[in-house]
Write a structure and sequence with these properties.
By secondary structure, the chain is of the alpha+beta class. Helix content is 53%, strand content 6%. The strands form 2 sheets. It has a 5-stranded mixed sheet. The chain has a two-stranded antiparallel ribbon with strand order 5-6. A hairpin with a 2-residue loop joins strand 5 and strand 6. Helix 4 packs parallel to helix 10, helix 8 packs across helix 10 and helix 13 crosses helix 15. It starts with a helix and ends in a 48-residue tail after the last helix. Its cofactor is heme. GO terms for molecular function: heme binding; iron ion binding; oxidoreductase activity, acting on paired donors, with incorporation or reduction of molecular oxygen, reduced flavin or flavoprotein as one donor, and incorporation of one atom of oxygen.
């Protein structure tokens, strides 16, 4: 009898708390952008298709406009849909929207550390060092050309070894692309049959697939509860620990042979900076090194290999486009030499095709979540500090104001009347890297 009474008290207390939270949310909602009414705890879960959250958000934008509020479980999110709304927030009010929002699958691993998933001063310092160091090792310059050509050669040999048999190119492309970033981060490439390398790629792929799955979407909404429940998320939690352990071991190996006067790779450069700044407030410490290295490995592997995969598929579907690319390659490069970095300046059609592949494939339609770092007024609405924001990149790259037929694959989106490459302000395939002092430009994460 006592147990039954205690259970009744717990149930009543829980319902009372949920009711109070709901009433408080309704009070706040009077000053927030409009949106569907959330239910206690589950929020707007019933209005979302977890198999295609982007389409659900697109449908909600048609009803509530370019700025609206949704609740992903108990988590409140302000959605920015369309070029104008995203630009106003991330350019005109860049400081207010500069925090990093929550992504439960990746936060389980990164926990606010590293260059990709940190905020505030930590993010600024890590980004500054990462960009400078990557440039020192040739990223964005001709210096990385040799690394790419070397890996392209290994890829060709691997494909020739299949003797024309049907293959899934996923793992082939993943190995090649990951080895380019590996040579910069670790100072060495992996053999394609290296079991450690294959395990690393498998774990990263497992995390990315989970994050995009319906179960991953549920985990993103209800991770505070699901992290204690049985299910696929428990395997992902184990994977995140293995990834961290792998990177810790790589850092340890570098540290044991470090020469402060001759950095061999990104890890060495970070370790040297750690030695230079040993004060207790420095952001250059072991946790940030491990997580920044993992961030670079993720960013330099999955997005590029996925884009290549989509690119091959689209060229197969559009043989007329493929023929024009081949024609330009023949004219500029020919068959008697390898391509060089400078060649892309003479190949506007090929560049336009690459841009259109990125636009059409729309690999990161929801964008990277942001967070309001202080109470903010935006378009007449009040956004409390700590509110997560989704700048929907997919809405930019399907905007008919910038792309007349957004559902069609058309390289002309990036060519002017003279057949020369032109910029398109709404082209942001991977990230929002805009500066308040500059015009809108595209950038890869």
């Amino acid at each position: 009898m006592l147990d039954t009474g205690l259970l009744l008290v717990v149930i009543l207390a829980s319902l009372s708390v949920m009711l109070l939270v709901s009433l408080w949310q309704q009070k706040i909602r009077g000053r927030l952008p409009p949106g569907p009414t959330p239910l206690p705890f589950i929020g707007n879960y019933l209005q979302l298709n977890t198999k295609d959250v982007y389409s659900s958000i697109t449908q909600l934008s048609e009803r509530y406009g370019p700025v609206f509020t949704i609740h992903l479980g108990p988590r409140r999110v302000v959605v920015l849909y369309g070029y104008d709304a995203v630009k106003e927030a991330l350019v005109d009010q860049a400081e207010e929207f500069s925090g990093r929002g929550e992504q439960a699958t990746y936060n389980t691993l990164f926990k606010g550390y590293g260059v990709a998933f940190s905020s505030g001063e930590r993010a600024k310092q890590l980004r500054r060092l990462s960009i400078a160091t990557l440039r020192d090792f040739g990223v964005g310059k001709r210096g990385v050309e040799e690394r790419i050509l070397e890996e392209a050669g290994y890829l060709i040999k691997m494909l020739q070894g299949t003797c024309g048999a049907p293959i899934d190119p996923t793992i082939y492309l993943s190995k090649t692309v990951s080895n380019v970033i590996s040579s910069i981060v670790f100072g060495e490439r992996f053999d394609y049959e290296d079991t450690e390398f294959l395990s690393l790629l498998q774990m990263m792929g497992q995390m990315n697939r989970f994050a995009a799955s319906p179960t991953g979407q549920l985990y993103d909404m209800f991770h505070s509860v699901m992290k204690y429940l049985p299910g696929p998320q428990q395997q992902i939690i184990k994977v995140t620990q293995k990834l961290e352990d792998f990177m810790i071991e790589k850092v340890r190996q570098n540290h044991s042979t470090l020469d402060p006067n001759s950095p061999r790779n990104f890890i060495d450069s970070f370790l040297i900076r750690m030695q230079e700044e040993k004060n207790g407030n420095s952001e250059f410490h072991m946790k940030n090194l491990v997580m920044t290295t993992l961030s670079l490995f993720f960013a330099g592997s999955e997005t590029v290999s996925s884009t290549l995969r989509y690119g091959f598929l689209l060229l197969m579907k559009h043989p007329d486009v493929e023929a024009k690319v081949h024609e330009e390659i023949e004219q500029v490069i020919g068959r008697n030499r390898q391509p060089q970095y400078e060649d892309h300046m003479k190949m506007p059609y090929t560049q336009a095709v690459i841009n259109e592949i990125q636009r059409f494939s729309n690999l990161a339609p929801l964008g990277i979540p942001r967070r309001i770092i202080k109470n903010t007024t935006f378009r007449g609405f009040f956004l409390p500090k700590g509110t997560d924001v989704f700048p929907i990149l997919g809405s930019l790259m399907t905007d008919p104001k910038f792309f007349p037929s957004p559902k069609d694959f058309d390289p002309q989106n990036f060519l002017d009347d003279k057949g020369q490459l032109k910029k398109n302000a709404a082209f942001l395939p991977f990230s929002t890297a805009w500066s308040p002092k500059a015009s809108l430009t595209a950038s890869h994460s």
